Amino acid sequence: MNVEVKEKEVLFFFFSIFFQFSLSNYVIFCILVIVVKNSIKVEVVIMISKLLKLCKRQEKRRKIGIGVGVFVLLLLVVLIPMSLASLDPVRMVTILSENANYESKDPTSFKIEKSGKWTAKGEAEITFDLETVLKTKYKYTDILLVLDTSGSMVGSKLDRLKGDAIELINSLIHDNGNKAGIITFDTTSTIVSGLTDNKDSLVEMIQNLTTGETTNYYQAFENVDEILKNYTKENDRQFIVLFLTDGYPNEETPNEVGQYKYLKDTYPFITINGIQYEMGQTLLDPIKKVTDVQYIASM
After folding, report:
1. Is the distance from CB of 290 to CB of 272 less than 8 angstroms?
2. CB 273 within 8 A of CB 241
3. Measured on CA atoms in the order 201, 108, 228, 165, is the torsion positive or negative?
4. What is the pTM assigned to this prediction?
5. HEC per residue, the chain
6. What does the pLDDT look like over 247-299, one tens digit per residue?
7. How do strand 123-132 and strand 140-148 relate by DSSP bridges?
8. Which residues pair with 141 in a beta bridge?
């Protein structure tokens, strides 16, 4: 085709193309206007039109490619550190009392241990363990551990019970005249050890504890009576019963209430402390009815 196109028609044509493009093509458009003013042929105009459309498609692809590339890069920057970041250990901190020596078990001394473990990125479980040495008017302490070994204590509960009991024995008995005894109960009750200051023997007996079946408070208090029948109270010694259970009594109940009252009337010098183990955060009546002071313990 050799037909020339009028200048106004060509300009109108290029303006229609220009407004479909981004301002980044403005320079190209200006060059085309200059060419048109020199009466360019229609074939060239059509060719340039195709060129502009091709540029437009290439620009779109470039922008999309850059957008996807940036998005993928951001994902890599954010996700890779999260997935590969190591969970640094939480440092254990120990705090000892200053005015009283905990290592020598001075009365009123204490030790606090803070430890922790990461449970997820940015989340940690912190544990505080407090150990104290009480100051009392007595020089010596006799403790009778009455431990629930019913079926519900199987597994991790029994392991935790053993660990806590051994820790108590190690804290109580260190060539200072204190003594401890052990009674266990499930469907029946057993005197594992009378009062003794043989720490190694007590620890070994605790390590060998196993679980039974149901829960019988009454038989446990019967055996407390058996221990106390042969006990001679001394003015400088205190006697504490530590009664630990994780379940309701379901054998010979409610005879345990009468037996508790009998013990308190017959041996007024004893203190019976109850530990409610893994049974919620509300003190339960069956435990309150057979103990002087109650505590809640959880794993």
Report:
1. yes
2. yes
3. negative
4. 0.58
5. CCCECCHHHHHHHHHHHHCCCCHHHHHHHHHHHHHHCCCCEHHHHHHHHHHHHHHHHHHHHHHHHHHHHHHHHHHHHHHHHHHHCCCCCCCCEEEECCCCCCCCCCCCCEEEEEEEEEEECCEEEEEEEEEECCCCCCCEEEEEEEEECCHHHCCHHHHHHHHHHHHHHHHHCCCCCCEEEEEEECCCEEEEEEEECCHHHHHHHHHCCCCCCCCCHHHHHHHHHHHHHCCCCCCCEEEEEEEEECCCCCCCCCHHHHHHHHHHHHCCCEEEEEEEECCCCCCCHHHHCCCCEEEEECC
6. 899 999 999 999 999 999 999 999 999 999 887 788 889 999 999 999 988 75
7. unpaired
8. 238
| Both tokens assigned to 223 | 């055996």
Give the separation between CA 37 and CA 7, rounded to whole angstroms.
7
Per the listing, tokens 């196993």 go with 210
